[in-house]
Amino acid sequence: MKSSWPEREKETAGLEDYLKVIFKLSDPDPQVRATAISEEMNIKRPSVTSAVSRLKEKGFVEHKRYGPVILTKKGQQLAEEVKERHEVLFRFFTEILNIDEARAKDDACQIEHYVSEKTLEKISKFVDFLISCPRDRAIVLENFKQYVSEGTRNEEMKGCCEG
């Protein structure tokens, strides 16, 4: 999952958040108004205008003054990548680490911008690996839950977990 950003820039996280919102709002109508972005993100319209200008400069959106914001193919690709990173992290936090959904959503939103492709790929494979074996998943996750809450390991896990 190679990122569409030419390089990781300081402003990347904020602009990726705008792309995610534009992507979300563009279904079913691909023409998104700046006012809708402002309302969705709970920020002032001038901030949206500035961000949209930067996204346009980078080729991620098309926009004419007072017109709708439309994702370019490049912008849609990056928005989908960010959404996928978010979903992988959210799934890991909720299904594996048993973190509540609100906290998992916030944490995934923060981390999705900075996690490396290799790390994200391994997290995704780890989740898939555990999910694909329900019996072992239940055993491992129940023992992990006990370890987190009590600091102790279940007897059946002691042999494999002590070094």
CATH evolutionary superfamily of the domain at 12-77: Winged helix-like DNA-binding domain superfamily/Winged helix DNA-binding domain
Strands of the biggest beta sheet: in what spatial order? 1-2
Main sheet overview:
2 strands, antiparallel
Strand coverage percent: under 5%
Overall pLDDT score: 86
Coarse structural class: mainly alpha
Our count of helices gives: 8
Low-confidence stretches: 4-8
By CATH, the topology of the domain at 12-77 is Arc Repressor Mutant, subunit A
CATH class of the domain at 12-77: Mainly Alpha
Gap from first CA to last CA: 35 Å
Tell how many strands the DSSP assignment holds. 2
Q: Would you identify the CATH architecture of the domain at 12-77?
A: Orthogonal Bundle
Write the layout of secondary structure elements.
Elements: H1 12-25, H2 34-41, H3 45-57, E1 61-63, E2 69-71, H4 73-96, H5 101-111, H6 117-131, H7 134-150, H8 155-161
Antiparallel strand pairs: 1-2
Helix pairs in contact: 1-2, 1-3, 1-4, 2-3, 4-5, 4-6
Which terms summarize this structure?
163 residues; mainly alpha; Arc Repressor Mutant, subunit A; two-stranded antiparallel sheet; 8 helices
Could you characterize the architecture of this molecule?
The structure is a single chain. 18% of the residues are buried. This protein is mostly helical and 163 residues long. The chain has helices at 12-25, 34-41, 45-57, 73-96, 101-111, 117-131, 134-150, 155-161; strands at residues 61-63, 69-71. A two-stranded antiparallel sheet has the order 1-2. Among the domains are: 12-77, Winged helix-like DNA-binding domain superfamily/Winged helix DNA-binding domain (Arc Repressor Mutant, subunit A), CATH 1.10.10; 133-163. Strand 1 and strand 2 (69-71) form a beta hairpin. The model is unreliable at 4-8 (pLDDT under 50). Helix 2 (34-41) crosses helix 3 and helix 4 (73-96) packs across helix 5 (101-111). It starts with 11 loop residues before the first helix and ends with a helix.
